[in-house]
Amino acid sequence: MKHPLFYAKILLFGEYGIIENSRGLTLPYNAYKGTLQFSSELNEIELKSNKSLHKYAGYLKTLSLPKKFAINISQLEKDIENGMFFDSNIPQGYGVGSSGALVAAIFDKYSEKKISSDKILKTDLKDLKIVFGQMESFFHGKSSGIDPLICYMNIPLLIQPNADVDKIGLAESKVGKGAVFLINSGMPGETEPMVQIFFEKLKNEGFRKTLKEEFIKYNNNCIDSFLSRDMGSFFQNLKHLSLWALNHFTPMIPRKFLKIWKKGIETNTYYLKLCGSGGGGYILGFTQDYEATEKLLKNYKKEVVYRF
C-alpha cells in the first residue's frame, strides 16, 4: 500500500511579521519528508510517535471544525490502536515544518470530504489555513496554519496581509551562482518561548513602530523583488532586513551565530535571517555567490535549498 509523502517547508519571508499582517513567501523543501505508517511491532521511536498521535487525537476531538473540513476521529483512533505512527526524517524544532507535515498527513488521510490539493480553489485556501492553524495549535500553542498548508499543497505559496493565499510559480536555476541555503545551528529551537518573547516585545510602542515601518516594509520589498527577479533591489532590502533582525531579534538568534551574522552584513557576501521562530534549528541564508559564501562559512554545516 502506497502512503502519501508530505515534505518539509521553508518560510523564506514572513517569520513573526505574518502575525502583524506582513506578507509571507514559502516553498516546499523535498530533502525531508514524512508519511503515516503501520507496524505490528513498534520500535522505541515508532512507539513514541504512536503515543504522541494518541494525545493528538484527543486534542482533535476538542475542536469544532467546519463540516466541509471535518476529520474522522474514530477511524484515526482505531488506526492508532492498530500501530500507526508518523515515519519522518524532518528534524523537529528546526523551523522546517515537522508538525506541519504531520497535520497535513492526518488531514489528507482522515478528512471526511476528500479535497485533492491540486484542485483546491483559492477561496478554500484561506479557510483551510484557518483549520490547519487550529489543528497545529496542539504543537505550538498558536499556529497561523501556514506550515501545514504548504506541506499539504507542496507548491510555493504567497501569503497576503488579509490572510489570503495565492499559488505561485517559482522557477529555479540549477546553474545559478546565487543560492538560498540553510545553516544547521546544531540544536533544536522551541517555538512557543520564542513567540512569547516576540509578544512581550510587541507591548513596547517603539518596537511596534519599527516592526511596522521597517521590518514589514523590508520583508514585503524582498518578496516583491525576489518574485520579479530584481536582484539588485532584493539584496539591498535583504541587507536591511538582516541588520534589523540582528538589532531587534537578538534573543531569537543563537549566540554563537551572531558573529557570522554580522560578518555577512559587513562583507556583503551573504545575508542571514531567521528560519521559522529561531532560538535554534536552522538559520536561513541568501547569497549572490555561493562559492564565496562556502569559503567564508566552511566550518558550518550547510544545505542548499534553492538556486538562482
UniProtKB/TrEMBL annotation:
Keywords: ATP-binding, Cytoplasm, Kinase, Lipid biosynthesis, Lipid metabolism, Magnesium, Nucleotide-binding, Transferase. SUPFAM superfamilies: GHMP Kinase, C-terminal domain, Ribosomal protein S5 domain 2-like. The keyword Lipid biosynthesis applies. One of its GO terms (biological process) is isopentenyl diphosphate biosynthetic process, mevalonate pathway. InterPro entries: GHMP_kinase_C_sf, GHMP_kinase_N_dom, HddA/FKP, Mev_gal_kin, Ribosomal_Su5_D2-typ_SF, Ribsml_uS5_D2-typ_fold_subgr. GO terms for cellular component: cytosol. This is Mevalonate kinase. GO terms for molecular function: ATP binding; mevalonate kinase activity. Pathway: Isoprenoid biosynthesis; isopentenyl diphosphate biosynthesis via mevalonate pathway; isopentenyl diphosphate from (R)-mevalonate: step 1/3.
